[in-house]
Structures are given as C-alpha cells and as structure tokens.
Amino acid sequence: MAKCSVTTKVGYFLAGASMGAVVVLLFAPKTGEQTRKLIAKKAEEGKDYVVSRGKEFRGQAEEIVEKGKQLVSKQKERLAEVLETGKEAARSTLSKV
User: Where are the domains of the chain?
Assistant: First the structure.
C-alpha cells in the first residue's frame, strides 16, 4: 500500500472541499448576490470567532506564563534557603575542627 504524506492528504482534502463548494454554489437556491452576502456574513462570523478564541488562548497562555514565573521565583527562594543552610552547616562543622 502506498503511503501518502500529510501534505498530499491535505492537498486532496482542500481540492475536494473546493470542488464541493463549487457544486454547492452552482445548485444554490439563492441568487448570486444573496449567496455572496451570506458568504461574507459567515466569513465575518468566522473571523470574529477566531479572534475571540485567540484572545482566550492568549489570556490562558499569559496565566500559565505568570504561574511559571511565580513557581520559578519560589524555587529560587527555596534554593537560596537550602544553600544558606548548607553554608551554615559547613561553617559550624569547620569551626569545630
């Protein structure tokens, strides 16, 4: 069985979708002007949806980045405390020698 790359599959899908769109437009029950208005309206709705979802994703990404910064800051503080404790232990051990 021959293997198709993802690019080839996507190309076939887009070609099929395009042909389907042409057939739908040819047999559409509305006039050309009505169909163009409908397509423009749907395209605008699609754009609005993509923009709103993009804003949501950006907000979520900003939250994740902020949480990551806080976590790094906490880990940095803990590491500083551990290092200081280690220094104190080394000083007390060396002072006993």
Answer: 6-96
**What is the per-residue pLDDT across 5-59, written as a single tens digit (0 to 9) for each?**
888 888 888 888 888 888 887 777 778 788 889 888 988 998 999 999 999 999 9
One-letter identity of residue 85: T
Distance CA 38, CA 42 (A): 6
The span from the CA of 51 to the CA of 44, in Å, is 10
Q: What is the pLDDT of residue 56?
A: 92
Q: Return d(Cα 95, Cα 97) in angstroms, integer.
A: 6
Cα distance between residue 94 and residue 97, in whole Å: 5
Distance CA 31, CA 34 (A): 5
Give the pTM.
Answer: 0.47
Torsion of CA 6, 10, 13, 15, to 10 degrees: -130
Q: Exposed (0-12), middle (13-18) or buried (19+): which is 35, by Cβ within 10 Å?
A: middle
